Amino acid sequence: MTRTAPFVHASADLDDDVELGAGTRVWHLAQVRAGARVGADCNIGRGAYIGPGVVLGDACKVQNYALVYEPAVVGDGVFIGPAVVFTNDEFPRAANPDGSLKSADDWHAVGVTVDRGASIGARAVCIAPVRIGAWALVAAGAVVTKDVPAHALVAGVPAKRIGWVGRVGRPLSPAGAGEWVCPETGERYAEDGDTLRPLP
């Protein structure tokens, strides 16, 4: 398969030392900061922000106006919906008690980690440091304050697990004896406490 060179819209703002993989597209008014590494075949939507040193895997979709602050690490095939926010400061303040503006030396950045195939719905907020497990689905508008297990479906403020999803993102149906099945693919999974594992 022949991959095309990255495409960057004329209105996008990329620092000099950004790495873009083959076939990646960066659209209108998006900003990608110094040291960011974006994999192949990604799509960075209008007005999206990718912070310094952020890592995106291959085939990721970052929708319009999403804010992915450093030091986020995002695996392959992750969907980040419109206006999603990944935070990076546990104790945010604009100024120190003496009135001086905070600088990069006055705080310690913490990141959001998203594993392969997970999806983050529109306007969700992920409060660092959290990890979103592989193939998990965060509902639109959720506020994630704790780690999300692989295959979990979470929703609400704060986000809580309300079900399980398979690799195609469809909610799983109970199949008895702690097992779950994907209604679309037939893939089966076993529940073990707060985790789900695929069955052979």
In short:
This protein has 200 residues and is mainly β. It is 0% helix and 32% strand.
Mean pLDDT: 96
* Biggest beta sheet summary: 9 strands, mixed
Portion in strands: 25-35%
Order of helices and strands: EEEEEEEEEEEEEEEEEEEEEEEEEE
The secondary structure category is mainly beta
Radius of gyration: 18 Å
Shape, principal axes of CA atoms: globular
Number of helices: 0
Low-confidence stretches: none
End-to-end separation in angstroms reads 30 Å
Layout of helices and strands:
Elements: E1 7-8, E2 13-14, E3 19-20, E4 25-26, E5 31-32, E6 37-38, E7 43-44, E8 49-50, E9 55-56, E10 61-62, E11 67-68, E12 73-74, E13 79-80, E14 85-86, E15 113-114, E16 119-120, E17 125-126, E18 131-132, E19 137-138, E20 143-144, E21 152-155, E22 160-164, E23 173-176, E24 179-181, E25 188-192, E26 195-198
Parallel strand pairs: 1-4, 2-5, 3-6, 4-7, 5-8, 6-9, 7-10, 8-11, 9-12, 10-13, 11-14, 12-15, 13-16, 14-17, 15-18, 16-19, 17-20, 19-21
Antiparallel strand pairs: 21-22, 23-24, 24-25, 25-26
Question: Can you tell me about this structure?
Answer:
A hairpin with a 2-residue loop joins strand 25 (188-192) and strand 26. The model has no long low-confidence stretch (mean pLDDT 96). The strands form 4 sheets. A 9-stranded mixed β-sheet has the order 1-4-7-10-13-16-19-21-22, with no helix packed on it. It is mostly beta strands and 200 residues long. Helices cover 0% and strands 32% of the residues.
List the keywords:
single chain, 200 residues, mainly beta, seven-stranded parallel sheet, 26 strands, globular
